[in-house]
Amino acid sequence: MKDDSMADVQVAESSQLAESNSILTRIRNWLSSWFQWTPMSATVLRAAEKKILSCLKAAYRGWYVDIGSAVGTSDKIWTISLNQESPKTPIVMLHGLGAGVALWVLNLDYLACHRPVYAIDLLGFGRSSRPSFSSDAVQAEEQLVKSVEEWRKEMKLEKMVVLGHSMGGFLAASYAIKYPDRVAHLILADPWGFPERPADHKPNLPFFYRAIGWLSQTMNPFWALRLAGPWGQNVVEKTRPDIMKKFSSVVNDNEGENVVAQYIFQCNAQKPTGESAFHAMMTGFGWAKNPMIKRIHEIPSDVPVTAIYGSRSWIDSQSANIKERRPDSYVNVQIISGAGHHVYADKSDVFNAHVEKACQMADKAADISSGTCTVEEKTSSIEDTTSEDIDVKK
Amino acid sequence: MNLSFAGCGFLGIYHVGVAVCFKKYAPHLLLNKISGASAGAIAACALLCDLPLGEITSDMLHIVREARCRTLGPFSPSFSVQDILLQGLEKHLPEDAHLRVSGKLHISLTRVYDGKNVIVSHFNSKEDLLQALMASAFVPIFSGFLPPKFHGIRYMDGGFSDNLPTLDENTITVSPFCGESDICPRDLSLQLFHINVANTSIELSRQNIYRFTRILFPPKPEVLSNMCKQGFDDALRFLNRNNLINCTRCLAVQSTFVVQDTLDESLEYDPQCQECKVHRQEATVANLPDTVLSIFQDAIDSANKGLMNWVFKHRGMKLLSVLSLPYTLPADLMYATFTKLIAMAPHMGNNLYLMSKFIMDEVSRLLKRMNRERREMSAQITCQLAITEYGGACDTEQEQESPVPVKNKMNFNFTLNLDENGEKKGTSRRFSSNKILSRHGSFSVNRAETSNVDDDTFEHILQVTAQHEAVMAYYYMDENNKVKVTEIYDVTDADSSVLLNPEEKMLNTQLQYDDDWDEVMHGSWMSTQPTMEEEDLDGYDGDTSVSSTEEDDRDDRDRHFSSNVFSDPESEWTRGSSSLQSLTAKPDNAGRHFKSSRPESDQTGRTTTRLPPRKYPVMDS
């Protein structure tokens, strides 16, 4: 705890240099480092992410991509990349709600064998900056999609395979509607927000339970986590031991500290702007205000779509729907048995194989080599941190 | 493919629906292992024993009716879930139930004293099986206050540690809560936020919160009927999606196919089989079988019709019954106490005797412990005296009868204690370990004594005697390094002289063997020695003792010494007993692949282990 708060002060100082030197902010930062209830800290988050990603066999590089004033005044998107110099079509990975780049750890190595891989923390999530989004569903969605497009421009990628999980899948589909020319292949991993909310969906329950449901709808999804404050990481450990188990084969947790739980908690402990954007796009119990299934036909028919679901997840009726709505284009629906919502981690081998297949299709379709940005290569993750610090200060 | 049923209290009616569907459309899935916790374990057992599901359902509804008509629902003092469950199971389970389910049924239990999960799959008798099922369905306070014992260790509901035990990758999970299970209700809401409680994935939705409250407070028969139907539908949908519904002719093909290729089962293996198609068509429009449905209808009718029910359904009457709670509750409490006393009367004397003995033991141990702090220094000085005595005695009367074993034992222990003092310097650390050990030891004494009482079969008696001896021997092994354990041994000796009698007899016979051996079989111990040694180490590893490795070494040396003096009768004895044990121990070893913390294997390990050192001090004198 003490170390964390010390680190907080340091981080606060460095960000001050970047922003402004006014005494007011300094005092506010100093106060908040002492009086904050939730022990959130960018340093701890960075350390946790680094520890998880240290299990990767291939070298990776992480840095902030400055996308200017897309939503806030100066937004930065945290990006990690592997095998950047490969000429094949790159794949861009968008994580789900409450997650971050590090949770792709089981997939990065395999995919990076063949092509450039980019994973980003969506704006408002993970280590990216957290501007406040619009409270309108359509606008919030647009803002998020725009941030991804700004990032692509900054990275100078011509065409890419977009892979999105859960909420990331929703955004990926939305991105493909808006910028179809940039999408070589759309891969949806158990996407959120596709089906329509049933019209007369009122379960016959006593008043008490309906009241609880109504109350929980008015708040941000992870409010309980932040309320738990110092015990937030324990809450993650206790309520989602299954996630820890998924990664236990790769992530080596010595000295008993649960890095994955720490990472997830730190991702969600900060100012929940991305979460608010999600909350704005959501209605009822996890339904989308503008369900994607209604708009899926707006994706031009030359954009191939692969949808990968876990058999234990909520797919039942909707999986076939994408096919129905796009009758004359490529739609490949895969159901991985024994996998749940986190299909990429539950059965990573099968999942990777499906993704790779889709990517190869994109390679064949377009022989254009993706434009790589000319940034000097860093191989070891230790050097990484130094470059990243410089980026922060800049 | 294995099946796994989640524990869920009164929602277990959902499992009945699933079971009906499996029996009808996919009986080949029931040939493999089935695991479960709590109500899920009972459902699994019923499926494996092929019990009539209609009767099970009516029994379940009977329990629900009983629970609902009490003043405080299932928490009423006069309502005992455990008794009703036990009665029902005893009535329905066949006599050879344990043989049918052994190795197939995996029951998830939670060990009370450390909260760890234990999966049991081998049962020696029908009573054994019932005990395991009862322990797995034991929710503290709700079902009672003292958790039931299984193989001498207290367990409670498996739902506290692992509610949905999965045996391998290809386990079909059945859970009445909407979440990430293979067969579960799919509520009309998106599963975005779910939590994972004791290995069971539960979505955070209003329906699930409602279901959660119904685990211990049973709902109306109508709701239960719907749940059962839901279970049937969900199971059917799962089978349909995975193409597991076939005609009997194709069953064999299908099952091997599933084992080989689990990744994409959506492949059609024989689309031509018309019979399968018809079967599937039937299944798509199928509903719960009439036998089960009619039972539900009866239950619903009996709950709704009739003048009494009509009267009690009125709001005014409900209010009245709530208002009258302060008056009816004491009456209920008194009634419950009275009936319990009546039921307990026959066993009362025995129980009281046991209880008083237990309390006496505890008090004496407490007194000893309180005195210990003051005596610690002086005890070490007397040790020195003891060893001189011991050495002299050992030389002169080596192989003679033991008239006063207790005293001699003390001497011996003190000797070793002194040895350690001479070699080791770190005094403070040793004392701290002493405390832990003496506590540990006292615990096992209690267990040996109490477990001595509730057994009847011949095998049990054999086991328990072995166990009892082992416990004493266990002290000796650890005592080699410790001070205080000796005293505990003393106390039990003095208190339970009745218990010691058969042992002393046994010892005497062994001593006679000793004499025989000294002249006759001199060389044969060499061959038996190593195996014995191995067993010793095994058992020692599995133990939760605190001693360090150096101490182990010394133990070994001592044991070597002991076997040097009179090994053969001893090793024969061990061999005999271990071969007897090995019958029971073998399947356990096989079951270790799944869970290492298996109580039975622990016990058998102990019994074989601690025999040799136990004899050492006695016969030395």
Could you please describe the fold and organization of this structure?
The complex is a heterodimer of chains A (394) and B (621). With 394 residues, chain A is α/β, with parallel strands linked by helices. Chain A has a domain at 62-198 and 209-220 and 272-370: Alpha/Beta hydrolase fold, catalytic domain (Rossmann fold), CATH 3.40.50. In chain A, 44% of the residues lie in helices and 14% in strands. In chain A, helix 4 (105-112) links the parallel strand 3 and strand 4 (117-120). In chain A, helix 3 (42-53) packs antiparallel against helix 11, helix 5 (137-155) crosses helix 6 and helix 5 packs across helix 12. Chain A starts with a helix and ends with a helix. Chain B has helices at residues 13-25, 39-48, 53-68, 81-92, 97-101, 126-136, 206-213, 221-241, 251-260, 274-284, 290-304, 307-313, 315-323, 325-396, 405-423, 427-451, 458-479, 485-495, 497-519, 525-542, 549-566, 568-591, 599-609, 611-620, and strands at residues 2-5, 34-37, 105-111, 117-120, 149-150, 153-157, 171-174, 194-197, 200-203. Chain B contains 24 helices and nine strands. Chain B starts with a strand and ends with a helix. Helices cover 65% and strands 6% of the residues of chain B. Chain B has 621 residues and is α/β, with parallel strands linked by helices. Chain B is globular, with a radius of gyration of 30 Å. The model of chain B is unreliable at 248-271, 377-456, 464-500 and 512-621 (pLDDT under 50). In chain B, the strands form two sheets. In chain B, strands 1, 2, 3, 4, 5, 6 and 7 form a seven-stranded mixed beta sheet that branches. Chain B has a two-stranded antiparallel ribbon with strand order 8-9. Classes of the chains: A alpha/beta (394), B alpha/beta (621). The interface between A and B is large, with 37 and 34 residues.
